[in-house]
């Protein structure tokens, strides 16, 4: 699968630079779908069209302030990811905290960008995240892995594993899922891949693959799931320039 992805990526690279307005409309399409799906996975009830309206600055009746903020915050977090990519900044814990701060801004300011001080559980999962006093050490281990072993991996494998390991640590009280998907795309976009969308319709296999990765340290299923979404995004980009 990675070989096929490499071929499609090489094909896309040959077509670059893409036409300005094609690129703009692709970005808008993916920003909307990424925001809608990432929030829907976490229980946000806004439809994709309602999400589009909120992104345009209009309030949707009958929906909570939190649901509106989740859309606006996610858009701002994507913009921050794009800035990091554009500036070619290396990934750091500080950036991860900043991303999370944007995700929870105005929703839970007390814990935005702050590692949790309480035990949490992931509903429906066998995996139990580490105790609060272990978080700092495990995040440091994650960054050490990222700066060493991870460099040898294919960007799709590296992005998927960064997402999975991070969400297994579950360093924040809330917003870990959204932050992990932002980190996945940050990693992919750094290597010139289009953003991927983990679709809400795939929520169950997504959660199952994550739980398997956490309990058995076997990341194969999760990497395959991410790779399928990467291929989807590459196909979308290639279809726009053929």
Automatic annotation (TrEMBL):
Protein name from the UniProt record: Cell filamentation protein Fic
Residues of the Fido domain: 91-228
UniProt source species: Domibacillus aminovorans
GO molecular function terms attached to this record: ATP binding
The entry's keywords: ATP-binding, Nucleotide-binding
Binding, ATP: 174-181, 206-207
Residues carrying the site annotation Important for autoinhibition of adenylyltransferase activity: 42
PANTHER family from the UniProt entry: FIDO DOMAIN-CONTAINING PROTEIN, FIDO DOMAIN-CONTAINING PROTEIN DDB_G0283145
Gene3D superfamilies tied to this protein: Fido-like domain
Active site residues of this protein: 170
InterPro entries: Fido, Fido-like_dom_sf, Fido_containing
